[in-house]
Every structure is written in structure tokens, then in C-alpha cells.
Amino acid sequence: MDGLALLISIGLQYGVPLKAIVDKLTNTRFEPSGYTENPNIRYSSSVLDYIARWLGGKFLSSEYLKPKTVLNEEEVATEATKASAVAGARDTPTQAHKPTSAAEDAPSCSTCGMLMVPNGSCYKCVNCGSTSGCA
Length: 135
Prior knowledge:
Elements: H1 2-13, H2 18-25, E1 34-35, E2 43-44, H3 47-59, H4 68-71, H5 73-89, E3 117-119, E4 122-124
Antiparallel strand pairs: 1-2, 3-4
Helix pairs in contact: 2-3
């Protein structure tokens, strides 16, 4: 943690925007993860995720205190609506598709490390735009 604090401090001193640091560290996943005692950040996917969301919430915007799944929920719902419309146009019976949260078994982006969000039957990264291999 001392090394991370030093790295963030030097980055800020040399002009790296706090938003860039926070965006890169948010949603990193590794142990320990889980519920926190902070009422503003109820769940964290790693220590780095917690620190980034705390820094973002304190110095940038309260939107960073929300989990990324909440921020991307509209996008997931839009994708699900498009998929339902295409299936309905083919006159095939479909079940109502409830959008799932991006945190449910979503892989990490191989390019930047952020959590990916569902994109049809694949995943895409909202941070750098790469996909999980689908066209």
C-alpha cells in the first residue's frame, strides 16, 4: 500500500490526471474483496478498487462511489432490448430477458484490466473498446 500511495503521489506531481488514475484502478478484481464498513462504498472488488472509488468520490464526482454495474445498467438494458427486438422480428418465442449486472462473472479486459460488460453473447470493454473476441 505504501508503494501504491507513492506511485499515485508521484503520478499526480508529474501531471497525471487523478481521473486517469481512478479510471484505471476502478473495478480491478482480486482478493480480498467483499463488503466494506464504509456506507458510501458498500462493496469493493479489491483494495485497489476501494481506494480508487474513494479517491474518485472524494475529489472527482459522487458517481465513483457507485459500482460500475450501476453506471452501465442503461447500456446493458439497451443491448437487451435490441436483442429482444431482433428475436421478436424472427417470430420466435423468447423469454423476457432481464439485464444481468456486469459484475456477474464478467471477465477482465486483456488490454486494460477493467471489467467488461455484456455485448450480445460476448463482452466489451467500456474503457478501451476491445471485445472478448467477437466480431
